[in-house]
Structure formats: structure tokens, C-alpha cells
Write a structure and sequence with these properties.
Order of helices and strands: HHEHHEEH
Structural class: alpha+beta
Number of strands: 3
CATH topology of the largest domain: Arc Repressor Mutant, subunit A
CATH superfamily of the largest domain: Winged helix-like DNA-binding domain superfamily/Winged helix DNA-binding domain
Number of helices: 5
């Protein structure tokens, strides 16, 4: 039963990260807490779209939010997130390197 809970949490977190807009939002919020009123102009998307993405990240436990008067402010809940993203970048770089090596082999074979 506990394994299912761990798997469910992994899926929830990884699913929340599996979207280009949400990854861009995380990069934007890496600079610190931001009000939705600051986030919206930085992205060429509707208010409802940005709100939906922020809520998905919040529900996954990736973002924290607080209300200050009429303003809703978001921030990264745990900076360990960036360690995870660096590991993903490292995996992607490994794959790119493998493709580059394969490309060189192919180039040599057609000469």
C-alpha cells in the first residue's frame, strides 16, 4: 500500500513537470516569489492558462502560494526541485552526446 502512495506521488510530481509552460514558469519563479500580476505579462498566454498551470504545480506540492490583499504570490516550495531538473538536463545531454556520436559514425560511413 505504501509503495502505491509513493508511486502516486512520483506520478503527480513528474506529471506536473511534464509540460513546457510549467517548466518555463519554474525558471521564472527561480528568481524568487512573484505575484500573478508579474507572471502574466512575462508569458504570452491567457490568464486562465497561466492560472491552470500554476495550480497544477501547487497541487503537486512544487509551488507554494500566499494571498497578500488582492495579490496571489507564488514561489518554489523546495529548492531541491532544481537538483532534479539538473539531473534531467544531464540525462538529456547524455542522449544528445550519444546522438552526436552516432551522427559522426554515419557521416564516416557515407564518405
Amino acid at each position: 500500500m505504501a509503495q502505491k502512495s509513493v508511486s502516486d506521488l512520483r506520478v503527480k510530481i513528474l506529471s506536473a513537470l511534464a509540460d513546457p509552460t510549467r517548466l518555463e514558469l519554474l525558471d521564472y519563479l527561480a528568481k524568487g516569489e512573484r505575484c500573478v500580476c508579474e507572471i502574466l505579462p512575462a508569458f504570452q498566454r491567457s490568464q486562465s492558462t497561466i492560472s491552470k498551470h500554476l495550480n497544477i504545480l501547487y497541487e503537486a506540492g512544487i509551488l507554494d502560494r500566499r494571498i497578500d490583499g488582492k495579490r496571489t504570490l507564488y514561489c518554489i516550495k523546495n529548492l531541491k526541485l532544481f537538483n532534479l531538473l539538473r539531473e534531467v538536463d544531464s540525462l538529456a545531454l547524455d542522449q544528445i552526446s550519444e546522438l552526436a556520436s552516432a551522427g559522426k559514425v554515419l557521416e564516416e560511413s557515407i564518405k
